[in-house]
Amino acid sequence: MSFSLERPQQRLQLVAAVLALLFMALVVRAVDLHWWQAGKLQARAEKQRLRQFPVAAPRGQIFDAHGRLLAGTASAAAVAAIGSDVPADRVGPLARALGRSESQLRQHLRRHAGFSWLARQLDPEVAAQIEALKIPGVRIEQDWRRVHPAGPQIGHLLGFVGIDGHGLEGVELAMDKRLAGSDGFKQLQRDARRNELPGSLWLREPKPGANIALTIDATIQNIAYAALYEAVQSQRASGGSVIVMRPSDGAVLAMANWPGFNPNDYRNYRAVDWRNRAVTDLFEPGSTLKPFTVAAALASDRWRADSRIYCENGKFKVANRMIHDVHPEGWLTLSGMLAKSSNVGAAKLGLDVGAKPLYTMLGDLGLTRRSGIGLRGEASGMVLPPERWGPVETANIAFGQGIAITPLQLATAFCVLANDGLYQSPRLVQESARPFARRVMSPTIAHTVLKMLAEATGPDGTGLLANPPGYKVAGKTGTAQRPDPKGGYSESYTAVFAGAVPAEKPELVIVAVVDEPKRSIFGGTVAAPVFRTIAAAALPYLGILPKSQPGDAGPLQVASGSNVPAASSTPSLYGQSLREARRNTATLGLRLNTHGSGWVVRQEPLAHNDLAAGQVVEVWLDE
Amino acid sequence: MLSHLQENRWWVAAAVMLLFAASQVWLAYLRNDQSLRMQQLASEQQSLQQELQKLNLELASLANPERLRQLANDELGMAPPKPQQVVRP
After folding, report:
1. Residues on chain A touching B32 (C-beta within 8 angstroms)
2. Hey, are the CB atoms on A557 and B89 less than 8 Å from each other?
């Protein structure tokens, strides 16, 4: 029987066969989709519906000792692109919005056909403009930008954060683990309109970074920075560092360096300018080391506070090396030796004490190792091991040559004198565990040396200019030749002043280091005024008022505005110019003896209102 | 009444099922709606937190001691007290 479409039954059979075939094909396809390709297709569907993305943990903030914000994170935007998806005719508007050249952007997109960042840490306003362009392949992502509101004043200490949100310098680097926290990972379901559907879950919750409170006081930091800037400018110096510490607990209240460095704009500075000189740079402490030679001598029990030492009229030969004094002296007490800053006296004292006890004293003061403050790049002191100390080395080190330390080490060592002979590691973070204070010298020795240092800032001392009006300072000047790269000494100097104030009960230890000053080279004229400026502003701020002067009823207070008294009503001439001092003493019929020029920093007698006409008032003026 | 229900039990069952289905749809809608609202609130919270952070940074910049010192100097004519400005209480 032949097949013919003419017959209805056979037509029906054909249609049925075709339908059966189609049904079979459908079944096969259904099995293919639901069985053979099930895994792959399900994964694709989930990829469309579910999205996993990282959630950045906000970086912790940094505060000063009084809760003032020193570093925080501001919201910013980033622009990302899939190079191959960006239409060629939209590159122009995109480049204009980004502020980049069109050709450069085209080249970038050609080179990065896949994902790449076009801009990071953009202002959200700029990002909104780019988003409004609705360019295929370009999307806006959340980004963060680290902001340091105090800028250059504290830049070296805080450091900065890189584009990946991790610290690269300073406290930001040293405390990165605590500040950074850990990013989270979230999975969410979205509908066709990209709205989040219920059922999102955290694969890993983000842990925000911890906030850190430093011991730094922003006000004192600013005072220190301004004082250092003034000194560097007026002395045409190449740079400098200042450290202010509280001796009782080793808290660092200020750490400033010059030249300043703005952490908000760190890319525009050379890497060498990022360093925190106060902890990375070594310098010869010069005469500021002599108090510790004296302390070692007192600890040996062979010397007493009133012992006298012959200073060889300024010339003393040790082995084949001649040691000189700027001001030749004969017999001096230990106090006089410090006040006159005699190298010969210190050298003879060091030789008598011996290499090992002197080295032990320096080691106990923390001058032979890192302070442990926790900042990266901190230098340990450069001190020869005592086995290599011959007489020349011992004599040199006794007056601060042939040894190199950081300003922080020097400040910490002075804190020992100001803290009854107890060593406290310097602290930068408030809640950091405080190790037990370690005794370096007896309280008697510390007090004795401090008293000697108070004389070193007296009228006969080299540190007279360090005294802020109304306070007494116990400190020491230092003037050290800077080493040259060939191994000898260059013609440039480092001027240093280190001291504690008030001398009777020290509340602050301040170290000022000025590198390569040009107008004067001496610690007493370059660095001591930095000390005075900082102490004069920081002590009243801390509530430590100037000591009353003889004839006063009580502590002095600062007048403001119209309360400023006429000069004639003041009991002293402190702070007056030479002309004012002459006029005021002439009005009272007193005779005036002057030393130096500038402003009155010291007066004998302290109050002149009880003097009779014709009597003499003696004043010392600084420059 | 009971016999009436028994007579129309299939219709009743269908109506109950329809009610369940409708309430399921309604619940899903509510869920999505709440989720959307939560997203909006979370986004609002985040943007407020960012704004707060921005304002804190702005405050810190404005209250920076160096800026205050300059303002006091330049605009108010203030200066650190000189020793002769020290008086008895």
Report:
1. 191, 195, 197-198
2. yes
Residues of A marked as catalytic: 287
The domain of B37 spans 4-77
CA neighbor of A63 nearest in space, from A430, A352, A582, A315: A430
Whether residues B32 and A197 touch (CB distance < 8 A) is answered with yes
Has residue B84 been placed in a domain?
no
* Band (A491; pLDDT cuts 50, 70, 90): confident
The tokens describing A200, both together, are 């999102």
Residue B42 to residue B30: CA distance in whole angstroms: 18
Q: Select from A72, A219, A575 the Cβ nearest to the Cβ of B53.
A: A72
CA distance linking residue A241 with residue A510, whole number of Å: 11
Give the nearest partner residue to A198 out of B31, B85, B87, using CB atoms: B31
Answer yes or no: is B86 within a domain: no
Residue type, position A483, single letter: P
Q: Which two tokens stand for residue A621?
A: 């003026």
Closest Cβ opposite residue A558 in set B60, B64, B85: B85
Q: Which residues contact A36 (CB under 8 A, 6 or more apart)?
A: none
Q: Examine residue B26 and state whether it is found in any structural domain, yes or no.
A: yes
Provide mean pLDDT across the span A95-102. Answer: 90
Is residue A603 predicted with pLDDT exceeding 90? Answer: no
* CA distances in angstroms from A320 to A73, A284, A323, A399, A481, listed in the order given: 61, 22, 10, 17, 20
By C-alpha distance, which of A421, A289, A305 is closest to A350?
Answer: A289
Q: Write down the ipTM of this complex.
A: 0.71
Chain B residues with CB under 8 Å of A576 CB are: 83-84
Q: What is the DSSP letter of A46?
A: H
In a domain, B16, yes or no: yes
Number of domains in chain B: 1
Q: What percent of chain B has pLDDT over 70?
A: 90
Q: Which pLDDT value is given to residue B85?
A: 58
On whether any CB of chain A is under 8 Å from the CB of B81, the answer is yes
Q: What is the mean pLDDT of chain A?
A: 87
Asked if B84 reaches chain A (Cβ–Cβ under 8 Å), the answer is: yes
Q: Which amino acid does the sequence have at A156?
A: H
CA pair distance A473, A538, nearest whole angstrom: 14
The answer to whether the beta carbons of residues A427 and A386 sit under 8 Å apart is no
In this prediction, residue A360 carries a pLDDT of 94
Which DSSP helix (H) or strand (E) runs through A234?
helix A218-234
Encoded tokens for A503 = 């001398």
| Number of Cα atoms under 13 Å in the Cβ half of residue A97 | 24
